[in-house]
C-alpha cells in the first residue's frame, strides 16, 4: 500500500541569529554561533530545512551558587570560585558551544556586587575562552539597568547575547545593546501574548529582528514543562506561517530549573527508592532538555556535564 | 488577509489622466500609498478610455515596478492585455481574472504557470453568473479539476464567487459565506477565497461600513483575499482584528502594529 505524503508546506521560518564576533568583525571570538533558520517543525526535516542545530550554553556564575547540590558542584569544584577558569573548563572539557554568564552576584540580596566587578568578570571570561558569550543579568530591574549597560560597553563589538528584557523593563538594555552591537533576549513568563508584545516593543526601538532571541521562562519536567512546551510549539508554528514577531529563535533555561526540582536534588538517604542522585539528577536535566527540544528550542542553558554530553549526543543523532 | 489594492484603475479620474498624459506622478503616489497601507498586491486596470490598452498596461506596470516592490495584480478581461502586462513583470504577480469555462481555464492556467503567476478564477461562465450556491460550487470544482489537470498549484488559485452589490440583490451576500466555507474544504491545500469588495457596496450611502462588515463576516467564514480599498484604514484594521478573533495570528496588545508591518 502506498503511504500518502502528509508533509505540510511552510511559507516562512525561524530567523537566523548569529552570536559572537570574530576579529575581522570587530570582536575577539575564535568562532561564532548561528542559531535558528528552521523552516519545519523540529525533527521533521522532510517538511523543510531544519536550520541550525540547537546549541548548548553552559552556565557559569559570577559567585559560587549557594543552592547547588554536591552532585552538581563536584565537576566544577576546582573552578567554582573563578568564573574564567569555570568557563574554560566548560568549553575545553565539557564541550559547551557557548557560555552563559549568570550575574547572580550583582543582585542586591545575593552579594550586591558592583558594575565594576561584573565588567571584570566579563572581561576575564572573554579572555579565557573563544566561544560566544551570553550575559544574563540578575533579574532585579533596577540593578540590571545599572550594571548591564556597563557590561555591554565593556564587551562592545563582541556581539554577545544579553538579557533579559521584559514588557516592564526593556528600554535601557535595548538601547544599550543597539549601541554596542549585541543581540538581546526578550522574556515573557509563560505568556505567548506578552512574548509577542515584548518583541514588538523592542522592534519599535528599531532593534533588528535578527538580533532577538525569545525566552518564555522554562518549566522543568514535572514543574510546568508542558506550559513551556506548548508555548514554544505555538511560537514555532507562528514562525512557520509567517508571523514576523514570533519568528525569533528560542532559548530555555533547563539547568537551573531541572536542578531546583526535588527529584534532581534530594539526598539518596531521603528517597532511596528513587535511585542515586548521581544518576537521577543529570537524568532529570537531560529529559527536560530533550523533551523541550521537540517543541522548538535553539539554545539550551545547561549545568551538569553528563547531561550536556547526553543532550549533545541526542541532538547529533537526530539532526 | 491578502489585500489587493484597487486604486490604480483607469476608472478613476487621476489614473485616467495619468495614462492619457503619460504622467507617472499620480500612479507612483498611489503605488507608494497603497504599499504603505499594507497592500499585498497592487491591482492594475487600464480602464476603458485608452486606445492602446496593452501599451497602457505595460506603461503602468513599469511605472509601478520602478517605484515599489509590491507584487502586481494585472486586471483585465482581455487575454491579450494580460499577456502584454505579464511580458514586463519583474516580481510575483497575480492575474485578475479568468472565467470558469473550461476553455478559458485551458488558456489562462498554462499562461499563469509559465509566469509562475497566481490566478483569480471567477465562478461564472458563458451561461452568466450563477445566482445560487450549488451552481457556483459546481464551477469552483471544475476550476480545481482544471488546476489538477494542468498541474497548476492550488495554492496559486483564487476562486472568486462573484459578489453582487447589496443594492442589486440582497439575498446574495449571505450565500457567499456558505461558499467560502465549502471552498475551504474543496481540496488540500484549498484555493484562496477572493471577492471584489468595493463592488459590493457601490452606489450605497454606507459604502465603507458595508464593506467593512462584509469583510469581517467573510473572514470568519474563510474569506482570505479581496480586491479592496486598502487606503481605508478602518477597513484594514477591521480585517486584522477579524483574523485575530479567528485565531489566525497570535494576539498581543500591539497586534495592529505587528500585523500592519
UniProtKB/TrEMBL annotation, chain B:
Belongs to the vitamin-B12 dependent methionine synthase family. Keywords: Methyltransferase, Transferase. SUPFAM superfamilies: Dihydropteroate synthetase-like. Residues 1-246 form the Pterin-binding domain. The lineage of its organism: Bacteria, Pseudomonadati, Planctomycetota, Candidatus Brocadiia, Candidatus Brocadiales. GO terms for cellular component: cytosol. It holds the Pfam family Pterin_bind. InterPro entries: Dihydropteroate_synth-like_sf, Met_Synthase/Corrinoid, Pterin-binding_dom. It comes from the Bacteria. This is 5-methyltetrahydrofolate:corrinoid iron-sulfur protein methyltransferase. One of its GO terms (biological process) is pteridine-containing compound metabolic process. The keyword Metal-binding does not apply. One of its GO terms (molecular function) is methionine synthase activity.
Amino acid at each position: 500500500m502506498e503511504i500518502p505524503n502528509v508533509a505540510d508546506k511552510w511559507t516562512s521560518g525561524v530567523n537566523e541569529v548569529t552570536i559572537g564576533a570574530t576579529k575581522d568583525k570587530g570582536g575577539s571570538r575564535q568562532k561564532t554561533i548561528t542559531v535558528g533558520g528552521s523552516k519545519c517543525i523540529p525533527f521533521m526535516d522532510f517538511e523543510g530545512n531544519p536550520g541550525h542545530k540547537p546549541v548548548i550554553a553552559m552556565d557559569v556564575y559570577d559567585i559560587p551558587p549557594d543552592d547547588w547540590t554536591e552532585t552538581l558542584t563536584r565537576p566544577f569544584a576546582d573552578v567554582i570560585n573563578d568564573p574564567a577558569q569555570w568557563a574554560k573548563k566548560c568549553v575545553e572539557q565539557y564541550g559547551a558551544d557557548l557560555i552563559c554568564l549568570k550575574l547572580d552576584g550583582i543582585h542586591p540580596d545575593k552579594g550586591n556586587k558592583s558594575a565594576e566587578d561584573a565588567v571584570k568578570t566579563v572581561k576575564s571570561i572573554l579572555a579565557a575562552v573563544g566561544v560566544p558569550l551570553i550575559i544574563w543579568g540578575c533579574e532585579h530591574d533596577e540593578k540590571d539597568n545599572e550594571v548591564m549597560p556597563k557590561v555591554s560597553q565593556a564587551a562592545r563589538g563582541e556581539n554577545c547575547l544579553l538579557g533579559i528584557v521584559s514588557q516592564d523593563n526593556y528600554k535601557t538594555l535595548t538601547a544599550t545593546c543597539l549601541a554596542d552591537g549585541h543581540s538581546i533576549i526578550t522574556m515573557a513568563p509563560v505568556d505567548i501574548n506578552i512574548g509577542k508584545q515584548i518583541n514588538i516593543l523592542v522592534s519599535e526601538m528599531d532593534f533588528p529582528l535578527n538580533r532577538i532571541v525569545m525566552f518564555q521562562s522554562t518549566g522543568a519536567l514535572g514543574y510546568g514543562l508542558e506550559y513551556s512546551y506548548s508555548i514554544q510549539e505555538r511560537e514555532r508554528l507562528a514562525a512557520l506561517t509567517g508571523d514576523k514577531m514570533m519568528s525569533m529563535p528560542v532559548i530555555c533555561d533547563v539547568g537551573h530549573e531541572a536542578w531546583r526540582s526535588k527529584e534532581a536534588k534530594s539526598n539518596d538517604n531521603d528517597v532511596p527508592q528513587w535511585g542515586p542522585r548521581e544518576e537521577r539528577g543529570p537524568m532529570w536535566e537531560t529529559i527536560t532538555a530533550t523533551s523541550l527540544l521537540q517543541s522548538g528550542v535553539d539554545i539550551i542553558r545547561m549545568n551538569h556535564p553528563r547531561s550536556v554530553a547526553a543532550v549533545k549526543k541526542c541532538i547529533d543523532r537526530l539532526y | 488577509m491578502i489585500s489587493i489594492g484597487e486604486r490604480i484603475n483607469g476608472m478613476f479620474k487621476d489614473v485616467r489622466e495619468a495614462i492619457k498624459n503619460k504622467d507617472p506622478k499620480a500612479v507612483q503616489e498611489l503605488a507608494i500609498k497603497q504599499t504603505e497601507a499594507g497592500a499585498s498586491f497592487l491591482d492594475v486596470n487600464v480602464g476603458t478610455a485608452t486606445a492602446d490598452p496593452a501599451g497602457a498596461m505595460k506603461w503602468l506596470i513599469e511605472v509601478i515596478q520602478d517605484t515599489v516592490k509590491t507584487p502586481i495584480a494585472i486586471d483585465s478581461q482581455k487575454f491579450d492585455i494580460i499577456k502584454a502586462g505579464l511580458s514586463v513583470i519583474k516580481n510575483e504577480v497575480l492575474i485578475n481574472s479568468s472565467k470558469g469555462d473550461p476553455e478559458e481555464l485551458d488558456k489562462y492556467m498554462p499562461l499563469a504557470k509559465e509566469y509562475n503567476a497566481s490566478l483569480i478564477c471567477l465562478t461564472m461562465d458563458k451561461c452568466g453568473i450563477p445566482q445560487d450556491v450549488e451552481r457556483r460550487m459546481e464551477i469552483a470544482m471544475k476550476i480545481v479539476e482544471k488546476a489538477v489537470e494542468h498541474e497548476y498549484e492550488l495554492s496559486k488559485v483564487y476562486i472568486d464567487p462573484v459578489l453582487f452589490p447589496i443594492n442589486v440583490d440582497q439575498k446574495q451576500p449571505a450565500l457567499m459565506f456558505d461558499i467560502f466555507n465549502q471552498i475551504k474544504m474543496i481540496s488540500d491545500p484549498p484555493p484562496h477565497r477572493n471577492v471584489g469588495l468595493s463592488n459590493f457596496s457601490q452606489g450605497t450611502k454606507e459604502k465603507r461600513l458595508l464593506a467593512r462588515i462584509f469583510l469581517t463576516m467573510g473572514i470568519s467564514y474563510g474569506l482570505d483575499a479581496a480586491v479592496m480599498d486598502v487606503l481605508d484604514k478602518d477597513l484594514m484594521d477591521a480585517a486584522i482584528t477579524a483574523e485575530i478573533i479567528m485565531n489566525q495570528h497570535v494576539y498581543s496588545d500591539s497586534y495592529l502594529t505587528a500585523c500592519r508591518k
